[in-house]
Design a protein that fits this description.
Number of strands of chain A: 11
Distance between the termini of chain A: 34 Å
Number of helices of chain A: 0
Largest interface: A-B, 22 and 24 residues
Radius of gyration of chain B: 13 Å
Order of helices and strands of chain A: EEEEEEEEEEE
Structural class of chain B: mainly beta
Largest sheet of chain A: 7 strands, mixed
Number of helices of chain B: 0
Helix content of chain B: under 10%
Strand content of chain A: over 45%
Oligomer: heterodimer
Radius of gyration of chain A: 13 Å
Shape of chain A: globular
Strand content of chain B: over 45%
Chain lengths: 112, 112
Amino acid sequence: DTGVSQDPRHKITKRGQNVTFRCDPISEHNRLYWYRQTLGQGPEFLTYFQNEAQLEKSRLLSDRFSAERPKGSFSTLEIQRTEQGDSAMYLCASSHENTEAFFGQGTRLTVV
Amino acid sequence: QKEVEQNSGPLSVPEGAIASLNCTYSDRGSQSFFWYRQYSGKSPELIMFIYSNGDKEDGRFTAQLNKASQYVSLLIRDSQPSDSATYLCAVKESGGSYIPTFGRGTSLIVHP
């Protein structure tokens, strides 16, 4: 395990469907972050975990979004009742304590 | 609202020149500063981090931090066409949560 892994890499879904993304962080990293990035913008913070605890959520994270990190290992991000505005790259990053964060390859979501 | 500002560019430089990328931030208590490189359609890749005032050099890259003026810059010496990408500045906020906040990125084009 040499890096952060995200699955799937691409997801096309119809509006109104639910989708779930998975992130496997670097094994010794206790912090895990989810970001969303749209074209021409920098990554926007969604939520982060320290071990299994979800410590902060952005106001961007509407009630249709939920994230979990059971047992402080992998994390999932679920979007319910997807909307076209949810189309974006969803990025996961991990870090050890307060050190630098490393990103996974991202999951590109297209809502049609 | 903590903000990280970057000129979106594009910044165009000839091959072999020095590219200078700048970033300003609003949170005076910020402690950690990062530069990521992002190729089109890919996820951000960490290239430099700096915590103390002054310069930090790594190969062709130099990060410069001035906390009093609240800016951080990235210099790329001997620019190559392969350096053409978007460069994202990230700042870790103070106050305990240490969530990286990103600017929108500066597009760099190195032309032969």
